[in-house]
Write a structure and sequence with these properties.
- It is a single chain.
- By secondary structure, the protein is an alpha/beta fold.
- The chain has helices at residues 13-16, 36-44, 82-89, 103-116, 144-154, 181-193, 206-209, 213-221, 242-252, 263-266, 285-295, and strands at 29-30, 50-60, 67-70, 77-78, 95-100, 124-132, 159-165, 200-205, 229-233, 257-260.
- The protein is built from eleven helices and ten strands.
């Protein structure tokens, strides 16, 4: 997939990858690019467009120093540091999504991001779970205010990817759930309270988002930040109603939805009839009703 360096101030994937013609569902992601081998494989792939990688505090190879490295909890050792990941992957053809797994990892990454920011002429997503979510999630989220403020100070041209912790799937033997009205409203409020001006994408778990289409649409409609989108993701083995998820994507529009799910689920999705330029009025009788439900909680 051909990439271009002709980006606006914020480098949007839709601009960087003109061949997708605004259809964000065509973006191809590489997951857990947390080692030199995985990074090399992803960089050599003609299909991969975005590199998703996890940032934790840990040890690089046999070093005793604790620094930001690329690894997924509970792993705390890697052969790839955050700084090396950014330098090696900066070949101009791939975007990146950095998933920060703790407040400490983000705080210690900020000097690295500031130093390398001038060289990152490509889409950059800064991701963190900043709110507790379904189903009664127990994982502690990052501090929302500190993450939003820090992201703006260090990478003001980045795209904020802000979501909820979740407890769902075969690991927990949970197959039912949704983002409830209170959780969705809290995210809208946090974005407004922090006066977020950067573009925002909301990573929502496929099996949960598909169960409340109107609520998720209202989330986008009522976000004060411009260019709000969804990033639909799923873990292997999650129960997902593919028909309902397809309906969500069609109703929101393929110009507003990144789809980052396993291939077996993606093969079941049907985007036919979805428009990359859906009129605003179509996004929403359901979203307006969901907003009404939110306001009644005040």
């Amino acid at each position: 997939m051909c990439a271009t360096n002709n980006c606006s101030r914020t480098c949007y994937p839709s601009e960087f990858f003109p061949a997708i013609k605004g259809n964000l569902t065509k973006i191809v992601w590489a997951h857990a690019v947390n080692s030199q081998a995985e990074l090399e494989k992803a960089l050599l792939s003609d299909d991969v467009m975005m590199l998703e990688a996890d940032v934790v505090m840990g040890k690089l190879n046999n070093s005793t120093d604790i620094i930001p490295i690329m690894a997924h909890p509970p792993t705390t050792e890697s052969d790839l540091s955050l700084e090396d990941f950014l330098n090696i992957s900066n070949n101009g053809s791939k975007g990146i999504k950095l998933d920060f797994k703790s407040n400490e990892a983000f705080e210690n990454s900020k000097p690295i991001l500031i130093k390398l920011r001038p060289t990152l002429k490509r889409p950059v997503f800064l991701n963190a779970d900043i709110l507790p979510g379904p189903v009664n999630a127990t994982t502690v989220p990052l501090n929302a205010t500190e993450f939003l403020k820090g992201a703006n100070e260090t990478m003001p041209d980045s795209i904020l990817s802000i979501g909820w912790t979740t407890r769902y799937g075969k690991e927990h033997n949970i197959t039912k759930g949704r983002y409830n009205t209170e959780q969705l409203k809290k995210m809208v409020d946090i974005v407004a309270e922090n006066r977020v001006s950067q573009p925002v994408t909301y990573p929502v778990r496929a099996g949960l988002a598909a169960n409340d289409i109107d609520g998720v649409k209202a989330l986008l409609k009522n976000t004060t930040s411009t260019n709000a989108t969804l990033t639909i993701w799923s873990s292997e083995g999650d129960f997902v109603d593919a028909a309902q998820l397809s309906k969500l994507i069609r109703e929101v529009g393929v110009d507003k939805v990144y789809v980052d799910v396993p291939n077996d689920l993606r093969s079941k999705l049907n985007f036919s009839g979805a428009s990359a330029m859906i009129p605003a009025m179509m996004i929403n009788l359901g979203a307006a009703l969901a907003l009404l439900a939110m306001t009644r909680m005040l």
